[in-house]
Amino acid sequence: MTRLERKVQKIIKKHHLNVDFRIIDGRFLALEGTIEHYLDGVHLCLDLAKEKLFVHVINNLIAKDVKEEKIYTPKIEDNKLDGRSYDVAIIGGGVISASIAKNLSIYPLKVIVLEKEEDIALEASSRNDGCIHPGIDLKKDSLKLYHLRRSLKMMDELAKELDFDYAKDGQMIVFSSKIYAMIAKIYLKHKVKSNKIPGYIYLKKDKLWEKEPNLDRTFKYGYFFPECGAVSPYEMSIAMMEYAHMNGVEVSLNTLVKDFEIVDKKIKKIKTNRGVIDAKVVVNASGVYSEDIAKLAHDHYFSIHPRKGTDVILDKDSYQILSTSGMTALDSLRARKKSHSKGGGVIPTVDRNVLIGPNAIETPYKDDYSVSKDVYDSLFNKYKHYMPKLNKGSTLTYFTGVRAPTYEEDFIVERGYFIDNIVHAAGIQSPGLTSAPSIGLTIKDICLDMLGIKEPKENYIKQRKRIVNIKNLNDEEKDKYILEDEDHGKIVCRCEEVNAFMVKEAINRCFDVPTIDAIKRRVRAGMGKCQGGFCRPEVVKLIAKLKNIDVEEVAIKGEDGFLSEIGRYDDEK
């Protein structure tokens, strides 16, 4: 047994587990065998990765307490894509895929995005808090820090180019203990310099309470990061994918990658439920499923361990009485490091709601979007300590997202190891949303190098515009729009002041997503206090009319979410 093998054996023995291991090419460690509890395997792999003996730790352990998970797959089976050829096929439709597609779209390439859901950005890319992080606790030599730092420099211009909201309200960390606050000051001073992140402002109690008047008075010290803020994660994803689609990228929804045909270390064919296609370059940007895609492609050299986090959204009345800046309320920065999380807090969204959360819980299930009462209660109990006016009665909705970390807790943005024409954008967890613009650029450069492309197209669309919402205009401007199209004056959603023009534009724009939830994500119809109680029938009528279908054929979401299954609008015909 070699010295390296003895080190591995020693760590395994410390965890009291009887498992086997293989060292692959001297770079990767694969663990194999059967264990009683899933979390025992996670903790072992995290410890092994922490030692940095290998580039990646691969978890092939079978845990007896893990039940077989039924992953959502589209029911549709057709030949829509069969026989088509592409330069680049991007697997996954989240914010990373959208950024990659956006950056590739300006080059003379044939690009397709393959997404198994009925819309883009339905999983981790929309199920997060939308924070644009400063990068306080990231390791100096990490890809996380590199891509975050580069993205922060791009975010203002990107928001203008794609016309999405970027609220630079800043972020804050607060402390009740002076000792912790002083330790944090030393730590932050070092981090600002070493990580080259935007500076901070130290606030003592009077200035702190002036900035956060509803903060509990036990908190007397804070650090404010003015250069950070928030976006709507699904708005940013949609904006990038619409830009890509406007410039020729094909978006194929309800499309599941089932297998690959591999010849001479290259992917020759991609087998989907909608036909078999070929692509010169395959990009794996499938989030929590990126390890599964790597296995199918015979390029399995890393592992993903899903980690779920729950957020709660409060109504807009809470915005003025709770938090005026994104606030992470912690008494110790060590808690952030230990949880591998950005910490969570009381956060104002770009739409002027208030979000609290998230937490971080390891799970073996990739589709585990459940929210338990205990988790919901614990979030309120935790943050009510910081913001006493926090009120459960203000809850609009809550959701859970599943992140996709590797055991090394860093991004993978690189060409494949065993297969020549695959590129991975994997292990993307927080700050993945912040880092997406930079990751998209890097993957674009890799693809162009592999394809020998250097110059962009002569003519491409350089700017994407959002759907016009006249509620943000003055009376004169409103009158002008209404005279041009009377639908601007027909209110569909009272809570969010969404008019018929906006709903119609969302139905007709770009790739085909005529579901109630898709319209909701694009124009916010149904995101107010009544949660669609008033506007849903109106949205249904507009979808049915524009798509020339019966109202019973209008889906809320997916292939099983038809209105006929939950109730009928008998007066809509």
**Average predicted local confidence, pLDDT:** 90
How would you name the CATH homologous superfamily of the largest domain?
A: FAD/NAD(P)-binding domain
For the termini, the CA-CA separation is 76 Å
In the predicted model, the low-confidence regions spanning at least 5 consecutive residues are 330-342, 564-573
Q: Percent of residues in beta strands? A: 15-25%
What is the domain total for the residues? 4
Integer-rounded radius of gyration? 24 Å
Main sheet properties: 8 strands, mixed
Individual helix count: 15
Question: What is the fold's blueprint, element by element?
Answer:
Elements: H1 3-14, E1 20-24, E2 28-35, H2 38-50, E3 56-63, E4 85-91, H3 95-104, E5 111-114, E6 131-132, H4 143-162, E7 166-167, E8 171-175, H5 178-194, E9 201-204, H6 205-211, E10 221-225, E11 229-231, H7 233-246, E12 250-252, E13 257-263, E14 266-272, E15 275-284, H8 290-296, E16 307-314, E17 326-329, H9 333-339, E18 345-348, E19 354-357, E20 361-362, H10 373-384, E21 395-403, E22 412-415, E23 422-426, H11 432-451, H12 475-484, E24 491-493, E25 498-499, H13 500-508, H14 516-523, H15 536-547
Parallel strand pairs: 2-3, 4-5, 4-15, 5-12, 8-17, 15-23
Antiparallel strand pairs: 1-2, 6-11, 7-11, 8-10, 9-10, 13-14, 14-15, 16-19, 16-20, 16-21, 18-19, 22-23, 24-25
Helix pairs in contact: 3-7, 3-11, 4-11, 13-14, 13-15
